[in-house]
Specification:
The structure is a single chain. With 264 residues, the protein is α/β, with parallel strands linked by helices. It has one domain (5-257): Rossmann fold, CATH 3.40.50.720. The chain has nine helices and seven strands. The chain has a seven-stranded parallel beta sheet, sandwiched between helices. Helix 1 (15-26) links the parallel strand 1 (5-10) and strand 2 (30-35). The chain is globular and about 60 Å long. The N and C termini lie far apart (69 Å). It binds NADP nicotinamide-adenine-dinucleotide phosphate. NADP nicotinamide-adenine-dinucleotide phosphate binds next to helix 1 and helix 6. NADP nicotinamide-adenine-dinucleotide phosphate is lined by residues 10-11, 13-17, 35-37, 40, 60-63, 88-91, 111, 138, 140, 183, 185-186, 188-190, 193.
C-alpha cells in the first residue's frame, strides 16, 4: 500500500494558518497541524476530518529552541511522510524597542526565524532525497521596510523573504518548489497577540485570511517562488518598497503603525 503524504502546517489553528489548512484539506491533502493549544488543535482536527482527509495534530511551542528538532523526530518516528511544509506560525510585538521586553523578542526571533530555518533544513533534506516536495514560508509585505514600533517583527520577516528566495534558487531543478508568501495586514488574532490593538494598521482595511490562504495555495501549486497576496494596495506597497530610497520607504510604516489618537 502506498504511504500517505502530509502537508505539515505550523500555526494551523488560527488566522492564515487555519485557512491554509482548510484549503489544503479541501484539495485532498492530509494534514499535520502544529500549535501550542491542544484544545484548539483538537477542535480544528475534528472540523477538518469532515473534509475527508487524515488530520494529525502535534502540540509544540516553537518558542522553544529544541521544539523544531523534537517535532521532526516525532514525525519521523511515527513514519509520517511530509511532502509539503508550511512554516506559518509567527508573532510580533508592538512598542518602542527601547521599552519592549527583550526575552519576548528573542522568543519571536526563535519562532519566526530559527524554528523556520530548522524545519526548512530538516524537511528539505528529505525532500531532496525523494526529489519531490514543496515549502511555503510566511513573510509579510511589512517585512519589505523597517517597521517602527514593530522593529523585531519586520526584521524577522525581511529575513524570511531573503532566506527563502535563496533556498528557492538553490533547489531549482531538484523537483522541489520553495516559495515565500507576503500577505498584507490581515484580519486575524495576530494583532491581539502583538499588543497592536491601538495601532492604526489594525483598525481597518485588513485583508481576508481565507483569500490570503487561497492565493498562497494557488501560487505554491503553480510553482511560484514569491507571492504578494491581497489587493492592489499590497502589490503597490511591495513594488514601491523595491524602488523607493530606504529613507522614504521607512517613513510609511511610521505612519501606519502609530497609535490611533482618540479624539476628544
Ligand atoms: N495577520 C497579519 O496581518 C499578517 C500579515 C502578514 C504576515 N502574517 C504572518 O502570517 C502568519 C500567521 O499569522 P496570523 O495572522 O494567522 O496569526 P494568528 O491568527 O495569531 O495565528 C497564529 C498561529 O500560530 C500558532 N502559534 C503562535 N505562536 C506559536 C508558538 N510559539 N509555537 C507554535 N505555534 C504558535 C497559533 O496557535 P497557538 O497560539 O495555539 O500556538 C496560531 O495557530 C505569521 O507568520 C504572521 O507573521 C500575518
Amino acid at each position: 500500500m502506498e504511504k500517505k503524504s502530509y502537508a505539515l502546517i505550523t500555526g494551523g489553528t488560527s488566522g492564515i494558518g487555519y485557512e491554509l489548512a482548510k484549503v489544503f484539506a479541501t484539495n485532498g491533502h492530509n494534514l499535520i497541524l502544529v500549535a501550542r493549544d491542544e484544545a484548539d488543535l483538537t477542535i480544528t482536527r475534528n472540523e477538518l476530518l469532515e473534509l475527508g482527509v487524515d488530520v494529525k495534530i502535534i502540540s509544540k511551542d516553537l518558542f522553544d529552541k529544541q521544539a523544531p528538532f523534537e517535532l521532526y523526530e516525532e514525525i519521523c518516528s511515527k513514519g509520517y511522510d511530509v511532502n509539503i511544509l508550511v512554516n506559518n506560525a509567527g508573532q510580533g510585538q508592538y512598542g518602542e524597542f527601547s521599552e519592549t521586553n527583550i526575552y519576548r523578542e528573542l522568543s519571536i526571533i526563535q519562532l519566526n526565524i530559527s524554528s523556520l530555518v530548522v524545519l526548512t533544513k530538516l524537511f528539505l533534506q528529505d525532500m531532496i532525497k525523494k526529489g519531490d516536495g514543496k515549502i511555503m514560508n510566511l513573510s509579510a509585505v511589512s517585512g519589505k521596510t523597517g517597521g517602527l514600533l514593530n522593529s523585531v517583527y519586520h526584521g524577522t520577516k525581511a529575513f524570511v523573504q531573503s532566506f527563502t528566495q535563496a533556498i528557492a534558487a538553490e533547489v531549482e531543478g531538484k523537483g522541489i518548489n520553495v516559495m515565500v508568501l507576503l500577505p498584507g495586514a490581515t484580519d486575524t488574532d495576530f494583532f491581539n497577540k502583538a499588543d497592536m490593538q491601538q495601532s492604526k494598521v489594525a483598525k481597518g482595511g485588513l485583508e481576508n485570511a481565507k483569500k490570503v490562504a487561497q492565493d498562497g495555495y494557488d501560487a505554491l501549486m503553480k510553482g511560484k517562488h514569491l507571492k504578494v497576496s491581497g489587493g492592489l494596495k499590497n502589490k503597490v506597497k511591495e513594488a514601491l518598497s523595491n524602488v523607493l530610497s530606504d529613507k522614504v520607504a521607512s517613513k510609511k510604516p511610521q505612519k501606519e503603525q502609530s497609535p490611533v489618537v482618540e479624539r476628544k
